[in-house]
Design brief:
This protein is α+β, with helices and mostly antiparallel strands and about 190 residues long. It has five helices and seven strands, in the order βαααβββαβαββ. It is globular.
Length: about 190
Amino acid sequence: MTVDVRPASVFEDVRTLLGPRSPTANVCWCLSYRVPSKVNSELRGPARGAYVEELCRTGPPPGVLAYEGDEPVGWAAVAPRADTSYARSRTIPHVDDLPVWSLWCVRVRPGHRGRGISHALIAGAVGFARSQGAPAVEAYPLDNGGARVDLTMAYAGIRGNFERAGFVHAADTTSVLAGHPRVLMRLDLR
């Protein structure tokens, strides 16, 4: 089946990928890096979903969704780095003053993995950032060296997937996730 990647402007589809089973749960909703830590701590239960719904409605959308037919099967978060907590990160360095976009989460629904959807999401996120005028896109994937990565913590992506998409190593970081170092990968769009 063909995978189609579109801006994440339909909240119900975003909810399918990111929303909790219980409406009162305090799950991420992919806001942990999107908003300042104080706001992230204050957003509880349904307020998290309401915040994402507002992002979908007011635009630009908070990322992209992958579809197989009409079914949403994957998500990638992408936004200007200046609008994320990466703008203030002590563990992920700034390479230069270019107003890059950050791609920090790639998620594929269970039952749809292993079919290239993450690759389509990375390409779709890059295309979306390019359409919004981004001069470059950065990602902060795990440098797992081929070692197995717990799927829960693989949201940051794997270095090899970004290399296959044309990203190049731009800097080392002091960030570690799931026992693996993270690297700063960049794709220049100029």
